[in-house]
Specification:
Elements lengths: L2 H22 L3 H14 L4 H13 L3 H14 L4 H13 L3 H14 L3 H9 L3 H9 L10 E4 L1 H7 L8 H13 L3 H4 L2 E6 L6 E4 L1 H11 L6 H13 L2 E2 L7 E4 L10 H10 L2 E3 L3
Parallel strand pairs: 1-2, 1-5, 5-6
Antiparallel strand pairs: 2-3, 3-4
Helix pairs in contact: 1-2, 2-3, 3-4, 4-5, 5-6, 6-7, 7-8, 10-12, 12-13
């Protein structure tokens, strides 16, 4: 890389960092300006087109936000979260048919709890159900699912752990600390209070939850936001023969009900005793 190229890259990186800093303090005008500066040098940076779209949406510059999201889609059409964000913008603009199409595309790529909820809110319950049913189970060795609905729901009402929740947190942190070649077989799972569908919680945002609630100074609103972020990104689970479901907490809480256990039995998954 030539000296000139290095200078251009350095300036573009600095602009991106200024944009990120402005985004974090919710200075949307500064964020969008800095992201545009970065993109003038690196126009193929899809992630920053997405960040630009977010900043413009927050600034209520919806036409520009849509253009930024669509530019990102041209670069990364298989990004499920990008389709989700476009759906949010279309819903905000009252273009509900386009919002539904974006949510459907997002669910086809990664059937998340949030995309499912948005489709249902638009009256597309049957379509959402079909998309969940068509989701293929994971390949490879059977998985061990830790159904931690009881733990999550408890923390939505309390900011500290006590009793059984302290034990649950210990189990969760033990798995989060495992080597990756072992850890990948363990999946944190959540089900809504209605039971039925299980959702796989991404480990990275849930690690934030576990670390935050283990700290000395916990603000409940912040904790609830961390939990919401983790649960919104959870993807639909289809159990299969050989999988094991461990109910970590109260059997009667958080959707771990008879209907769910019957479904586990139907597909040949094992349910471990709860504690």
């Amino acid at each position: 890389m030539s000296d000139i190229s290095l200078i251009v890259k350095s300036e573009a990186d600095a602009a991106r960092e200024r944009g990120d800093a402005a985004r974090d303090r919710r200075d949307w005008a500064q964020a969008s300006g800095s992201y545009k500066q970065h993109l003038s040098s690196w126009p193929l940076d899809s992630a920053i087109w997405i960040q630009l779209g977010h900043a413009l949406k927050e600034s209520e510059r919806h036409d520009e936000a849509e253009a930024a999201y669509r530019q990102a889609l041209d670069l990364t059409p298989e990004d499920a979260d990008l389709h989700l964000q476009l759906g949010h913008l279309m819903k905000l603009r009252g273009r509900t048919d386009e919002a539904a199409r974006a949510y459907v595309m997002s669910m086809r790529l990664a059937p998340t709890r949030l995309a499912n909820r948005e489709l249902v809110a638009l009256g597309k319950d049957a379509l959402a159900g079909k998309l969940l049913a068509s989701h293929a189970p994971p390949v490879g060795l059977p998985h061990i699912y830790l159904q931690i609905s009881d733990f999550c729901n408890y923390l939505l009402s309390h900011k500290t752990v006590s009793g059984i929740q302290r034990v649950q947190l210990g189990v969760i942190k033990h798995i989060l600390a495992m080597p990756e070649d072992v850890q990948h077989r363990y999946i944190m799972a959540y089900s809504d209070e209605s039971g039925g569908q299980l959702w796989a919680i991404p480990l990275a945002p849930f690690r934030v939850v576990a670390d935050y609630v283990s700290g000395a100074d916990v603000e409940h609103e912040v904790l609830k936001r961390h939990i919401a972020t983790a649960l919104d990104g959870a993807e639909a689970i289809r159990l299969r023969l050989g999988d094991t479901c461990m109910i970590v907490g109260a059997f009667w809480g958080g959707g771990a009900n008879l209907e769910q256990l019957l479904e586990w039995n139907r597909v040949g998954a094992q349910a471990s005793p709860h504690f």
